[in-house]
Amino acid sequence: MPQSSPDKAISRPPDFVLRLVDRIPADAAVVVYDGDDATIEDSFARINPTARWLAWDRAGGLAPGTAGAVVLDRPLPAAPAAGAVIERAARLLAPGGTLLVRCTNAEFHETVASRLDGGTDSDPAAHVPEAVAPLVLGSGLSMASVIADHDDVAGARAFAQARQADLDRIGMTAVSRLTRLAGRSFLVVALRGPLPPPMFINARLRDPTLGANAAMSEVRVERPLRFLASYPNLVIRVERDPAPMSPPGRDRSIFIHQRPILRRPWGLDLLRELRRRNYVVVLEFDDHPSFWPDIALHDYLTFAGPHAVQTSTPALADVLRRYNPNVAVFRNDIAELPPPRPPRPGPVRVFYGSLNRAASIEPLTEGINRVLRTAKVATATAVILDREFFDRLETPRKSYSGMIDQARHRTLVSQADIVLLPLADTEFNRCKSDLSFIEAAARGAVVIASPVVYGSSVVDGETGFLYRSPAEFEEKFDRLIHDTALRRRLAANAYAYVRRSRLLKDSFRERYAWYQSLLDRKSELDAAAAERVPELAAR
């Protein structure tokens, strides 16, 4: 495993760390905002549709200690006004609430160049972090972090090289100068209350160009990390296959490895190196392992070697605990809820997206064709991946796609009125999650689904339809095709269920608490992993 880059100071964090909306705690009930970017409110409303969003100049009546977050997105004014602004924001924050302050950077390379060449600061209200920190601490808050923008990295690097002697003379150290020079602004993050213990997360994701990897990386790792980014004292780094693996050694570090198959000997070498670098290794896996024979061939090192495993369903957790007792279940929830879908004219649109479902749809195909042939309304059917089913469909209005990206998949679901979710009753299928249902429900489509997997979340006749035989499927499919009012009622109920019970903003803190607990038990987990896989203790 290569050593990490020495140029750490300017390595770009994940985009979600830099996006202001992702620094706001997703479950904040009240957010006070001062700024001009209306898209931030719209974006946060998708994350937390029940939150109350107040403009800074209209928050005068808000009781002290009420806001989950205060966001000052206008550049902080010059002193002494800056201190008064921060003190007012601090009074509004609830215990544990977050303050985000946008500051114009007095050390942006163009500003520094002007100063070195005898000019004046371009903005009298520009700040350096060392001047803002006392204002934050003086208001009774804990200073969490300073996040530098990366507006002009190339310009900063060229300026630092050309004016190295001048920068040495004014005391801008080499280790920090690129970060300080590259951004026109920086973001101060503070907390009302003590800071949590530090945590560093290095996530290793599958190659997004292969199969369904991008979709599941987003759902299982990237979306949750976006929400965790609002925690103070947490640093997140993301790398993807096939790029070289280069996790830096840090204290209190989690290494999240998404869906690897660890084969001897290199799998053992990887685990030993991660242990040497002080990581707690968490395997992310969300399918039954029987699909990959190499997992068993290598004595289930994939699950036994890491310190812990995270997965998506209780049924799959029971399987994985055969090889590692430290398994946590984090269900798949919706990160962003689109606005309710309005009624629209046109044909009744049916969607079937097959990934390993060909055997499940086969017994239903004749009934589907009978309904489509005799339908008294226009229909259009979109099929993904299952070419055999598509070819057997007896309707002229059909379309086929092979493997598509997640954005295109969501577009097709958003266009659908009915989504078909068949799953045959097998051990592999019983370990799947209900993600397809909640994504359809969030986008205004009605599902007709098997009781396998979906029986615990779809309420038959209320939030969708369940079927237990091909005949029942055919009857309910026909009803959905012809009864517009029924479709709209079921869709509205399913959307309300997701809004009420299946948003990630209500569950992301469970993941953070589990990661902290793993770090607190690292010595115990090290010993347990070495007992399961004795080769890990070998040097």
What would you say about this model in short?
By secondary structure, the chain is an alpha/beta fold.
Compute the number of helices. 24
Radius of gyration: 26 Å
Span from first to last CA? 16 Å
Structural class: alpha/beta
Question: What's the total number of strands?
Answer: 18
Structure write-up:
The protein is an alpha/beta fold. 40% of the residues lie in helices and 19% in strands. It is built from 24 helices and 18 strands. The strands form three sheets. It has a six-stranded mixed sheet. A six-stranded parallel sheet has the order 8-7-9-10-11-12, with helices on both faces. The chain is globular, with a radius of gyration of 26 Å. It starts with 14 loop residues before the first helix and ends in a 7-residue tail after the last helix. The relative contact order is 0.09.
Task: Write out key terms for the chains shown.
18 strands, alpha/beta, six-stranded parallel β-sheet, 539 residues, 40% helix, single chain, disordered N terminus, globular, six-stranded mixed β-sheet
Secondary structure elements and their pairing?
Layout: H1 15-18, E1 30-34, H2 38-47, E2 52-55, E3 67-72, H3 81-92, E4 93-104, H4 109-116, H5 129-138, E5 142-148, H6 153-162, H7 164-169, H8 174-182, E6 185-191, E7 199-205, H9 213-228, E8 234-240, E9 253-258, H10 266-276, E10 279-284, H11 293-297, H12 301-304, E11 308-311, H13 314-320, E12 327-329, E13 348-353, H14 358-361, H15 365-374, E14 379-384, H16 387-392, E15 398-401, H17 406-415, E16 418-421, H18 427-430, H19 435-442, E17 446-449, H20 451-454, E18 465-466, H21 470-482, H22 484-501, H23 508-520, H24 522-532
Parallel strand pairs: 1-2, 1-3, 3-4, 7-8, 7-9, 9-10, 10-11, 11-12, 13-14, 13-16, 14-15, 16-17, 17-18
Antiparallel strand pairs: 4-6, 5-6
Helix pairs in contact: 3-5, 6-8, 15-21
